[in-house]
Amino acid sequence: MFMALSADNAPHFTTIADFISRQQDEIVSIFRDVVLVCDEQGLIGKQMFAVDGVKLPSNASKEWSGTLAEFENKALKLEQALQKLVQRHRELDAQSEDVDLRTARAQRIDTLKLALDKVRGYLQCGQDKIGAKGKIKKSNITDNDSAKIKGSKGVIQGYSAMALVDAKHQVIVHAQAFGESQEHGLLIPMLEGAHETYRELNLSQDVLKGVKLAADAGLHSEVNLKYLAEHEIDGYIADTQFRKRDIRFSDAARHKPKLSAPDQPNKPDRWFAPKDFQLGENYAYCICPAGKRLYRNGGNCRINGYHVIKFQSAKRDCQNCPLRVRCLRRPNVSETRQVHFFVERLHKVASPKKHCAHMREKIDSEEGRYQYSRRLAIVEPVFGNICNSHKLRRLSLRGRRKASNQWLLYGLVHNIGKIQRYGYLGA
Predict the structure, then answer these.
(1) How far apart are the C-alpha atoms of 383 and 389, rounded to whole Å?
(2) What are the pLDDT digits (tens) for 374-413?
(3) Structural domain boundaries enclosing 190
(4) Same-domain status, 373 and 418
């Protein structure tokens, strides 16, 4: 009816973009209202949830990412390029030159000036971002809340768009975008956001208590699993070695293509390892496979928390040794052979992560494998519907709050489709 009244006229894309950018405060409340409608119509089973994320590019370029030191270097290069281009432009002023070429050079000069002003402006007020481990993270001049994220199609500048999906009809109960390249720290904010949504709607004070929750290995950590145990959430989160322990994937390596190694006629079948050297009394020396003696040149070394004793051969013994090719990795460069022997561990072994160990046992059971296998059919079709069916493959707004609200809007579109198809009002 609306299409007939509007004579099939569609709003311009700038009108839609302006509407989205101005409705930031309303999107959250509307999303919750749609979740309320889904709950009232019985579309949310509240028996099992799955959480996962999709990586979406943002309205920013990787070109403008880096640390302050990298931006200083970038500004220096821009200044040098601009200086050479201006000098070239002045030299050709007195000569007759093609108008198009002169115009293109002038435009290039203006582009470099804008880029230089952009970098210099950020250097005056910008600061390096510090990660969870205390290391410097790359900032972005255009959208500093976004991050460089590695995906299936390479590295993008964007956000990790997370979604918590119910198993009954794949309704999104909470969605949020994070400018983080790693997903380990995103599970708890997602679960807290779901709690807040249901408390605001007066539906439940602890909607996740006792329910099943499935997630992939990107969210497996001791902190997350401890949170699930404390809040009585029946979690099924695989670790990175999950498939290697599964007998069904024992022959998975045969399906991987074998890379042909370059011809190395001088490469031996096996290099001599420390086990091929014989230790002398009191660790004073060791004997190499050729029968030569290596002398001790370090007894109090530490490598990865171990006490290490080092031995080194004499140059006269290695120069004309017939086993030189098998003993030295780079026989044309290395003069002598060094051998390290690990004696004992110097520091105490860290206590095992009990929650991770418990989850490994749980996920390896028949029940655990079944519940975890349901994750793929719960959450992945949601991303396929949003990104492929609705063509919502990127975030056009800048800033974490705006990007997160836009991702909520995408989830709202998905949930309305569920009401239309499965709700009794749509029927």
Answers:
(1) 9
(2) 999 999 999 999 999 999 999 988 989 999 999 999 999 9
(3) 20-60+141-250+354-422
(4) yes
